[in-house]
Amino acid sequence: MNVGIICYASIGGSGVVATELGKALAVRGHSVHIISTDVPFRMGEFQAGLAFHQVLTPTYPLFREPQYLLSLANKVVQVARQFDLDVIHAHYAVPHATAALLARQVLATSGAARVPKLVATLHGTDITLVGNDPSYSQIVAYSIEQSDAVTAVSDSLREATSRELGVERSIQVIPNFLDCSLHRRLDLPDLRRRFAGDAGTKLIVHVSNYRPVKRIDLVMEVFARIRRAMPARLLLVGDGPDLGVAYRLGRELGIASFVDVLGAQEEVVPLLSIADLFLLPSEQESFGLAALEAMACQVPVVASRVGGLPEVVEDGVTGRLLPAGDVEGMAASAVELLSDPDRHRAVAQAARRRVLDRFCADRIVPRYEACYRAVAGGVDSPSIPL
Questions:
Q1: Among candidate residues 332, 198, 209, 197, the one with its CA nearest the CA of residue 277
Q2: What are the beta bridge partners of residue 173?
Q3: CB neighbours of 203 closer than 8 A, spacing ≥ 6?
Q4: Which has the closest alpha carbon to 155: 294, 379, 310?
Q5: How far apart are CA 138 and CA 250, in angstroms?
Q6: Domain spans of the chain?
Q7: CATH code reported for the domain at 2-177+360-376
Q8: The pTM is what?
Q9: Diameter of the chain measured on Cα atoms
Q10: pLDDT confidence of 185, banded at 50, 70, 90?
Q11: Distance (Å, rounded) from C-alpha 165 to C-alpha 168?
Q12: Cβ atoms of 88 and 116 closer than 8 Å
């Protein structure tokens, strides 16, 4: 099939999953066209069957802000005509599914030989933040209702969509996934020594885009308590608006010298491979792709019991889930795991098994293919169990 995928290029779970889906589809023989403002973060080197089309949004004095939605819709029209797209897969209802709907109208009224079907995948921000804003809620709901098929990355997000927006249509849950042949723990003793220094020091990792919802303040407070109980260092991976909070709290809590800020990293597997624990005390997570990546590398996760995280992390088996904001509980759970080598090993192995059993690309990508075939054939998308 000829598939167009619209996504954000920046660091974040939605862009990563959209890009990895495109790469996996190309390997499986499909012609895939990634449409975004820049080359996506995880796109990597040239791959046969995978092409990138850049959305350029000019600025004009007449407009108070760049008209991204219009330029995106125009690019989708161009790519659909040139490459005879069967399906447009928009990651985020607004603005991406909205732009795709506009593009479909242009194609339909201009005599295009083929008007592609629209699949919209909901990732969370489009529902829990944008969708809740009265300035956007009607257009978010409309874009979801008018798509040919809609998927969500977790049961929690599907329920939130129906509850918050009053959407009544069927939404299929297709979780995020990993290439499990690449996301696996590596033996990197030299890299571990570089950060830990000695075998007795534990390495704690946090990976995110450092938006307020990720609660980097809680990461620092939990780590400070872990540090008081045992030798430990914190690796902060990623970048974003709240990274400055980490610097400030590092100084205030007296832990700055035990924190390594590594910035955005395209390849996180080496850093996860040397980690002993992954911290994710988010206020909200529609899925928790960073936690899944940690689990694939046999890193136990201590996280908030919010959103889709309970669908990823099995509490007491692959990590620990605590109420959002429970700094003391998260720190105690982390210290307990890190202090018991046998228990830590068992949890780490269980984490890897859970990823292999439920979240590898060879299990998830065929479900998207089935969704595409269903809408291209003019029938409702089937519900395919895990």
A1: 332
A2: 152
A3: 192, 195, 196, 232, 233, 235, 274, 275, 276, 277
A4: 310
A5: 42
A6: 2-177+360-376, 189-358
A7: 3.40.50.2000
A8: 0.92
A9: 69
A10: very high
A11: 9
A12: yes
- pLDDT tens string 60-90: 776 666 689 999 999 999 999 999 999 999 9
Tell me which DSSP letter residue 275 carries. -
Q: Do domains 2-177+360-376 and 189-358 have the same CATH topology?
A: yes
| DSSP-based helix, strand, coil % in the chain, nearest 5 | 45, 15, 40
Token pair 């450092």 is found at 210
Residue 49 and residue 66: Cα distance in Å, rounded? 31
Which residues make beta-bridge pairs with 334? none
Any idea which residue has 């809740």 for tokens?
132
Q: CA 94, CA 87: separation in Å to the nearest integer?
A: 18
The CATH class given to the 189-358 domain equals alpha beta
Give the three-class secondary structure for 32: strand
- For the segment 23-61, what is each residue's pLDDT rounded down to a tens digit? 999 999 999 999 999 988 778 788 899 999 999 988 877
